[in-house]
Amino acid sequence: MTQGARIVALECQDIRFPTSLQHDGSDAMNPDPDYSAAYAVLRTDLPGPQGHGLCFTIGRGNEVVVAAIEALRPHVVGRSVDELVRDLGGFSADLVGDSQLRWLGPEKGVIHMAIGTVVNAAWDLAAKLAGKPLWRLLSDMTPDQIVDLLDFRYLEDALTRDEALDILRAGRNGREQRIEALQQTGYPAYTTTPGWIGYSDQKLVRLSREAVADGFTQIKLKVGADRADDARRMALARDAVGPGIRIAVDANQRWSVPEAVEAIKALAPWDPYWVEEPTSPDEVLGLAEIRRAAAPVRIAVGEHVANRVVFKQLLQAGAVDFLQIDACRVAGVNENIAILLLAAKFGIPVCPHAGGVGLCELVQHLAMFDYVAVSASTEDRVIEYVDHLHEHFEDPARIVRGHYLAPTEPGFSSTLKPGSLRAHSFPYGSVWQAIRA
Amino acid sequence: MTQGARIVALECQDIRFPTSLQHDGSDAMNPDPDYSAAYAVLRTDLPGPQGHGLCFTIGRGNEVVVAAIEALRPHVVGRSVDELVRDLGGFSADLVGDSQLRWLGPEKGVIHMAIGTVVNAAWDLAAKLAGKPLWRLLSDMTPDQIVDLLDFRYLEDALTRDEALDILRAGRNGREQRIEALQQTGYPAYTTTPGWIGYSDQKLVRLSREAVADGFTQIKLKVGADRADDARRMALARDAVGPGIRIAVDANQRWSVPEAVEAIKALAPWDPYWVEEPTSPDEVLGLAEIRRAAAPVRIAVGEHVANRVVFKQLLQAGAVDFLQIDACRVAGVNENIAILLLAAKFGIPVCPHAGGVGLCELVQHLAMFDYVAVSASTEDRVIEYVDHLHEHFEDPARIVRGHYLAPTEPGFSSTLKPGSLRAHSFPYGSVWQAIRA
């Protein structure tokens, strides 16, 4: 059916949502984000589904990611659809390996995020053509097919191809039961909705109580701007939810290494479940030191970690208790699978970063694949959830009793509705025109 | 004279040189670079000098850096020139601290390189207005003025503000003699001109001999594509220059950690002076392991190191023997001064990366400031030199008997000639039109 079909265009759009007006998404480092997406469509000459991908940003600079996606066009347009979906490892390697574009990273920042967007769009296309949600397409691949997707360069001292195969082969045991469990109860979630730093104390307390009533067993608060505020808000939240609910805190990189140790000890009386991004995400050594000094409080990091090489080192250095993958920071599905396998090798649970726009929709597929084929467990594992902007997606993330329901629609759940695209196109969509008026 | 003057525009151009036609600049990771510059001009309403900055890239994607520079325009246009040049620390902090643009890094890749371009353009303007070459402007600042330029966030566990002040105060001793030495004999250089991987054996031998005849005491070869080629070329070069000349080798990130150890041991018989970028520049732990396993061969790294946080860790982990700053990778002069101070704290010599287009012109100023005010030594220190594309600059780097002569013209030596800008504007300049025809 797809024989002879080609990718005929790579279309890009700058999509922004004016979230800063409500302080939604505010934290100590990012006081006024406008959640945005550099949005890419791999258009084929087939009448049916196209490949949709997005890179989440927080406003200004979204156009720079669009420019970087456009720089990838020569690698994409004209390709055979059949060959593309048959060799998504080769496709990813072509993009990452462009010897001139590589200079802009290497393998980090804007160019890497743009590659991730296009690779993810190709996976959306592949899953739609296969008639499966992405998590299921990945879960149905053989261990050999999975490792063929991966770039082991720079990983061999921590994870060889054979070790990856062993992990995936072990993951075949109980696979069917785990698929069934996902289809019945979904994957556990936690919510950051109550804890944005710009929210009032009353709103924090009200939303914390609502989260528990909605079935969540873990919430997250933003901290790091002011020590006294952090303590007061943590106490309020603990009081609101009681001792049985986990409260994670997120410092969004605000502290130096010694500051972090002190700040974490100050929050310890309220039993934080984890402390997220206490310092720079580039701090392999510093995070390891913070973790040792702040024990038994646990450390989570990953949403801003640039690539698999840094994730590898965080694991090697014993710097993390929870690894937080992000669907849009690294070079897409392929690199995230490598990171899931690294985490499994080191026995560290993966608790994906989400929120923003589209991050929940995307990353749920990776966590569910992790459960079915890699970690084989949901113990100590949760996907972040924030109740923003899901209404703009064709196949939105669905939460029931604190769990992500397993997606059933074919694809990567990354398709924005045409009306949402039109209204939020920056700077001339109707939403932005209305704000200026 | 500048009272009331404003920055009235931030102009950007995409400038490319078709260097891939001659294999100039070819290495194992970058076989066909077209040396390029995302070029920025801070235009004032003064009749006199303007601020010129550039970000070196190797071709495709140069337009992405241009887009990122343009994203910085709101931070720049309308500023008072007086206030800008009086508080270049605050200016840099404003750019690095943009809470939305920060998401695109943080502090790495395209957005960080764009910030470096604009910060460097501001320094060019400041130096021109002061009537001094940049190295001299910096060398004439007091220790307190210098530390006010720096962002110590994430550095405090390795370098405090007080420690930086101590280093700079110690650097006042013998300052005048070092300035005089620079003005008389310049700063030692080494040359990579002979060693590009795409050059024939004959060309390698001929250029190696010429380098020695020209007064260089160190050359550099590109390795890492093929083990047998590396050994043959190393043997040819050693034979051509004799035992008294240092031969550094550069693997341009081609190896994994275990491969690097093996490859370095295989080259050891020809006495490599250092091995550069044996693996990923993100590999703090891996580089430390390579250095231990490959001793006494020395390790050099830095041209692709994303920011001061990673440099700090390379020093903390004992991963490097030589630190190679780059003028265009981090956030400009300010962050590079922080890196020079970190290196001084750890007693590691800085040997700047150069070549490309404009890198020699820019980085010589930083190395000379290092000598006058920070390290106070040129022992074991050399600046890379490649004899490409200097003719396009108003104030080109000048090499005599293997030394960079101290620049005397006001500014950062970053101004391209108007005719060169016109001819190499991509894709419609005359040089590119001729190639297409």
TrEMBL record, chains A, B:
It catalyses: L-fuconate = 2-dehydro-3-deoxy-L-fuconate + H2O. Keywords: Lyase, Magnesium, Metal-binding. PROSITE patterns: MR_MLE_2 (PS00909). It comes from the Bacteria. Its EC number is 4.2.1.68. Its cofactor is Mg(2+). It is an enzyme of class 4 (lyase). Residues 201-297 form the Mandelate racemase/muconate lactonizing enzyme C-terminal domain. This is L-fuconate dehydratase. It comes from Streptacidiphilus alkalitolerans.
